[in-house]
Specification:
- With about 350 residues, the chain is α/β, with parallel strands linked by helices.
- The chain folds into 2 domains: about 5-120 and about 295-320, NAD(P)-binding Rossmann-like Domain (Rossmann fold, 3-Layer(aba) Sandwich); about 130-285 and about 325-345, 2-Layer Sandwich (Dihydrodipicolinate Reductase, domain 2).
- The protein contains 12 helices and 14 strands.
- The chain has helices at about 15-25, 40-50, 55-60, 80-85, 100-115, 130-140, 160-165, 175-180, 185-195, 275, 295-310, 325-340, and strands at about 5-10, 30-35, 50-55, 70, 90-95, 120, 145-155, 195-205, 215-225, 230-235, 245-250, 250-255, 260-265, 345.
- The strands form 2 sheets. Strands 13-12-11-7-10-9-8-14 form an 8-stranded mixed sheet. It has a 6-stranded parallel sheet with strand order 3-2-1-4-5-6, sandwiched between helices.
- Helix 9 (about 185-195) crosses helix 12 (about 325-340).
- The N and C termini lie far apart (about 50 Å).
- The model has no long low-confidence stretch (mean pLDDT about 95).
- The structure holds nicotinamide-adenine-dinucleotide (NAD).
Length: about 350
Amino acid sequence: MAKTLGFGVLGAGLVAPFHAKSIVASEGGRLVAFCDLNAERVQAMASDYGVTAYDDLGAMLADPAIDVINVALPNHLHFDAIMQCAEAGKHVITEKPPAMSLAETDAMVEACASRGLKFGCTVQCRVRAAIQAMRKAIADGRFGKLLHADAFMKWFRPVDYYHMDAWRSLRKAGAGVTVQHAFHYIDLLQYLVGPAARVQARMTNLVHPDVALEDTLLAFVDFECGAQGVVEASTALWPGTDVRIEVNGTKGTAIMTGEKMATWTFEDDQPEDEAIRRLGDESQATAAGGAADFGFADHQVVVEDFIEAVNTDRDVIIPVASVRPTLEMVLAMYQSAAKGTSVDLPIIDDPSIW
Ligand SMILES: NC(=O)c1ccc[n+]([C@@H]2O[C@H](COP(=O)([O-])OP(=O)(O)OC[C@H]3O[C@@H](n4cnc5c(N)ncnc54)[C@H](O)[C@@H]3O)[C@@H](O)[C@H]2O)c1
């Protein structure tokens, strides 16, 4: 019989409730505890869910009722915490980006793999039905030769967002729009048509002059498959509109807006295409105008898959290893913006970008 897995959520901030709700709603998962250095925050969240509050990761890792840790800490703190979780023999689901460098990511993947631990990442937009349909159509060759793959994330965050917590305005904490917000959509391009071969990026700060971060990214990408694309991502564009992911080939075009399939047109029209055109009609909010303005359904798919993967000892739906090429694209964009030139992949880490 499948084992019920105990979960501990590390970090009781903005994204923690999305993990908590997914675990509570899941089949086979039990929320056991939250852990946060901020005692008031963690007490409040733990009491909302009727679970244990820890203010120290070591104490949470010693809890035998916990099998999986969901890491929901600021980006620059993922690495140390995940290494500690692996040493304690806990499976890990980390928030994006998995870490701040390729070397850290490789070390974490190795630390989990060598102990037989599952290691997943919540780049949860991958599980959207429209994205899965695009990925299948690409695998089936329905686009013909892939020509373009583009991501447009025209969002808005007021300046208060950057001052909610100290790390949100720190470049070295991974707070810029490229690594913090656009990561999901750069990941979708990588997931659909990657890996990338070359990037050229320009980063600017359009409307948040008191934070030393880029609030806007413009990038060109050449993919190894021969397609080219652009990424336009911003938190400066009031009031914020839904993300668009576009794929064009010689024989087809697909466009997802938010999570809705806005365009699905192929030379070889198939009977199932009518249903695909309606995907996402019951559309949810997708964080265009506010940091917590989205649902937890996608996180829940990741959590439920993770439970099944542990119980059947198969790989998880989004292993961190599959997100490494996305982090590499993102790091290459920072290198490109810093140098003012295009950057070829693979790259080596350059800590001076932070
Ligand atoms: N997948 C998504 O859609 C999504 C959405 C939002 C945020 N995120 C990611 O989730 C992560 C957390 O973001 P957030 O917005 O919840 O941040 P947050 O600042 O709201 O929450 C982070 C929490 O971690 C706590 N913390 C810091 N250091 C700690 C430590 N050493 N031990 C225990 N607790 C500690 C802080 O006190 C804070 O409560 C980031 O990696 C972010 O990129 C993902």
